[in-house]
Every structure is written in structure tokens, then in C-alpha cells.
């Protein structure tokens, strides 16, 4: 297995992601920021939970095209506009709504959430960049 996920003692627990990912494969997959749009570019959700679910589904499609799955992911970076800490329940609801469908590991791979002023369109609340490692 090219990816080992770790949550060492002494780091904040519990969190919905692992703190460390060790990738030992030679082939890397970098997925560009995915947003809540369908193949024609139309918005597919307007709430935070719905957009999170949509970006994870799009990311799964991109990973699959490269022969990867979420179990190969070593890094997730979420960008969220107008972020407020009290929205964490909505963000996690979006993750949980697709976790089984997409085979998301629990806890997730190492993840960061960055609050930003805006993304490329006013209705886009979430963008997700992903890195995976394959043999």
C-alpha cells in the first residue's frame, strides 16, 4: 500500500483527519481545485454541505480517471469562502453524506481548511485540491 495514514500521540485528538500521510509510491496524482459544478459548468448546490458533497464527488471522478481512489490520497486542501467556525457541522455533513458512496477513509487523509474572501465565481463556496500517491 503506497499510503500510510498516522495520527501520532501528542497531536490534537480527535480530529476528522489524520495528521500525517506517508506516500511511498512513485506516481503522484494532483487534482486541480474542484467546485460544485456539473460537466456543463452549471451549479449543482448552493448550500455549504451540498457543495462539499459535490466537490468530493468531482474529486472522486478525477481520481478514478488517474486510476486512484480516496485511499491513495495524501493531502486535501479545502478553500471555503465567507468561512465561519460555526459552519464546521455543515462542512462535515457534506463529507459524511458521501463518505460511504466514495470510499472516504475515516478519519480522512491530512486536510487543511482555508477561509478565503472569494473564489472565481460568487456562488462558489468550496474548492478542493487533492494529492494522491500511487505505486
Question: Can you lay out the helices and strands and say which pair or pack?
Answer:
Blueprint: E1 3-6, E2 20-23, E3 27-34, H1 48-65, E4 73-81, H2 88-102, E5 111-116, E6 126-134
Parallel strand pairs: 4-5
Antiparallel strand pairs: 1-2, 3-6, 4-6
Describe the protein's architecture and organization:
- This protein has 135 residues and is an alpha+beta fold.
- It contains 2 helices and 6 strands; from the N terminus they run E-E-E-H-E-H-E-E.
- Helices cover 24% and strands 30% of the residues.
- A 4-stranded mixed beta sheet has the order 3-6-4-5.
- Helix 2 links the parallel strand 4 (73-81) and strand 5 (111-116).
- The protein starts with a strand and ends with a strand.
- The relative contact order is 0.30.
- The mean pLDDT is 95.
CATH class: Alpha Beta
Radius of gyration: 14 Å
Report the average pLDDT across residues: 95
CATH architecture: 2-Layer Sandwich
Order of helices and strands: EEEHEHEE
CATH fold descriptor? 60s Ribosomal Protein L30, Chain: A
Broad shape: globular
Number of domains: 1
Low-confidence stretches: none
Distance between the termini: 8 Å
How many β strands by DSSP?
A: 6
Task: Count up the helices.
Answer: 2
Largest sheet: 4 strands, mixed
Helix content: 10-25%
Walk across the major sheet and give the strand order. Answer: 3-6-4-5
CATH superfamily: RutC-like
Which class of secondary structure composition applies to the elements? alpha+beta
Amino acid at each position: 500500500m503506497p499510503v500510510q495514514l498516522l495520527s501520532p500521540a501528542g497531536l490534537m485528538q480527535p480530529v476528522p483527519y489524520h495528521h500525517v500521510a506517508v506516500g511511498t509510491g512513485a506516481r503522484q496524482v494532483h487534482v486541480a481545485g474542484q467546485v460544485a459544478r456539473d460537466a456543463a459548468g452549471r451549479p449543482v448546490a448552493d448550500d455549504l454541505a451540498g457543495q462539499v458533497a459535490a466537490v468530493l464527488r468531482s474529486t472522486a471522478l478525477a481520481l478514478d480517471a488517474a486510476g486512484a481512489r480516496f485511499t491513495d490520497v495524501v493531502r486535501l486542501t479545502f478553500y471555503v469562502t465567507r468561512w465561519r467556525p460555526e459552519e464546521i457541522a455543515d462542512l462535515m455533513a457534506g463529507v459524511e453524506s458521501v463518505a460511504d458512496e466514495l470510499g472516504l477513509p475515516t478519519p480522512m487523509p491530512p486536510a487543511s481548511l482555508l477561509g478565503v474572501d472569494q473564489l472565481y465565481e460568487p456562488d462558489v463556496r468550496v474548492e478542493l485540491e487533492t494529492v494522491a500517491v500511487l505505486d
